[in-house]
Amino acid sequence: MLMENFAPFMFGGLVLVMLIGFPVAFSLAALGLASGFFAISQGWFPASYLSNLPLNMFGILSNDLLLAIPFFTFMGALLEKCGLAEDMLDSMGQLFGPVKGGLGYSVIIVGFILGAITGTVAGQVIAMALISLPVMIRYGYNMRYATGVLAASGTITQLVPPSLVLIVMADQLGRSVGDMYKGAWGPSILQVLIFAGYTFALGVIKPSHIPGVPKSARTLVGWALWAKCLRGIIPSAVLIFAVLGSMGGLPGIDTAIATPTEAGAMGVVGAMVLAAMHKRLSRGLIWEAMQGTMRLTAMVVFILIGARVFSMVFQGVDGAKWVEHMLSGLPGGQTGFLIAVNVFIFFLAFFLDFFEIAFIILPMLGPVADKLGIDLVWFGVLLCVNMQTSFMHPPFGFALFYLRGIADTLFKEGRIKAPIKSADIYMGSIPWVVMQLILVAVVIFVPQTVTMFIPKEAVIDVNKVQIDAPPPEAEDPSAEDADAEQKKLEEMFKPSTDKPADSK
Predict the structure, then answer these.
(1) Which pLDDT tens digit goes with each residue over 85-125?
(2) What count of other Cβ atoms lies within 10 Å of the Cβ of residue 351?
(3) What pLDDT was estimated at residue 477?
(4) What is the pLDDT confidence band of residue 493, given thresholds at 50, 70 and 90?
């Protein structure tokens, strides 16, 4: 076998081991090592090439940027259970409830706010479904709309800063986390507007699907209701500003006073304060959050190590050149490349987690996008928008699995009268997946949705650079006279070179 043909063979093996279902971290490492030993036996690279592998492992573990992941994960795990979601959903539901689709609006808004402070999809979907699903069913909401809006609003977390995916994207693409966060604000807000627009249109076309809640169902009115809303929003806004603003991740803030790791540490302190304010801070809560953080961090590190083993061997057999040649030759230039890549990522997300896609696939695509002149912040945010759908794909979307489990729990506890069919959950997700794909198309064709908040780099035209040199100084006459006097003295005392006359 020729080395030129081995890279496609490795890529096919990558797809195969991912479909088998064995943990990706270990199957990737095994595939990479097996391919490396075969390449050495064929003489494609020396055995010393793999001796750099331990140094690569230490390089991964010493990456300061990835240290932000456990901090943000711990912050999100604390906020999931501090009672913030319950209070905000209750107050927002009463505020918007009388409007047609009001409960839907409240779920979308709370999903956006929680996404900006928690960063975890699982906890958000579970918390919102436990609280809002029985209420929606009680007041006659269409089952497919109710399950769809809960799942989709939970996945906004993937895109809203401080998303863990954006941290990984920034690391893999070599870009600033602050710039990646700024770029994500435009699509995040646009996603909320698209969801709200769909809810409004449904209220006009089929008002019976999303009826308003009777005003008599309110337990709070007037200033008491607004005060409860503000008690949830103001602390959340302060935490968002402290965490994202300190690292330059908010629009209009171009100076970072903290690294992502330091900002994550501040977020943990803020999460503890919020939990204490809601009287939920306890040793059990902290221990449970630490366990969840440990599991997620260990998973990320092992996936990254397995991906590094595979990518190192893949680079050794010129796999990067093969990928570049295959993708750079697509028709349509940048647009054709972006469409092809997003179609590929969309179907790949049926089987892979977003971390796996970011660590395995992104290192192959990033260099090609850079050579095509694509802004890597735009590229990273675009893929992050696409990977939202990985939680919503029927039948493998994790958000749908979470919702399925919560629906069964609610029925067993008697909080809903009839079981929710799986068909309603899967069919209800389809319109929201379509809306997410519409956002992908908008970001592809309107890159300003990402780049409008990112500070522009100064472009210098070297042909127009002018250097103003000071005029030459006029010679000082006194200096000339001093030089002349010095020469005369040197001539006067210069030893004679004539030979003396012979004496007789």
Answers:
(1) 677 777 777 777 778 888 888 888 888 887 777 666 777 78
(2) 16
(3) 54
(4) low
Poorest-pLDDT segment among 235-244, 315-324, 328-337, 450-459 = 450-459
- Chain centroid, CA 311 distance in Å: 21
Q: Confidence band (pLDDT; 50, 70, 90) for 471?
A: low
State the Cα–Cα distance between residues 298 and 366, nearest whole angstrom. Answer: 25
> Is pLDDT of 198 > 90?
yes
Render the burial of 386-397: b for 16+ CB within 10 Å, e for the rest: bbbbbbbbbeeb
Q: How far apart are CA 194 and CA 159, in angstroms?
A: 14
Helix 376-387 vs helix 177-205: angle between axes, to the nearest 10 degrees?
A: 40
CA angle 241, 246, 249 (to 5 degrees): 75
Tell me the C-alpha distance between 78 and 287, whole Å: 10
Could you identify the residue written with the tokens 């759908």? 389
Nearest to 40 by CA among 312, 247, 438: 312
pLDDT in tens, 263-288: 888 888 888 888 888 788 888 888 98
**CA distance linking residue 108 with residue 156, whole number of Å:** 9
Q: What percent of the residues of the chain are helix, what percent strand, and what percent coil, each to the nearest 5? A: 75, 0, 25
Looking at 278-360, list the stretches that DSSP marks H as alpha helix, in order from N- to C-terminal side.
283-316, 319-328, 333-348, 354-356
Element (H, E) at 82: none
> How far apart (Å, rounded) are the C-alpha atoms in residues 80 and 128?
10
CA 158 to chain centre: 7
At 46-91, the pLDDT tens digits run: 888 888 788 878 877 777 777 888 888 888 778 777 767 677 777 7
DSSP for 392-460 reads T-TTT-HHHHHHHHHHHHHHHTTSSSSPPPHHHHHHHHHHHHHHHHHHHHHHHH-THHHHTTSPPPPP-
CB burial class (10 A; 0-12, 13-18, 19+) of residue 498? exposed
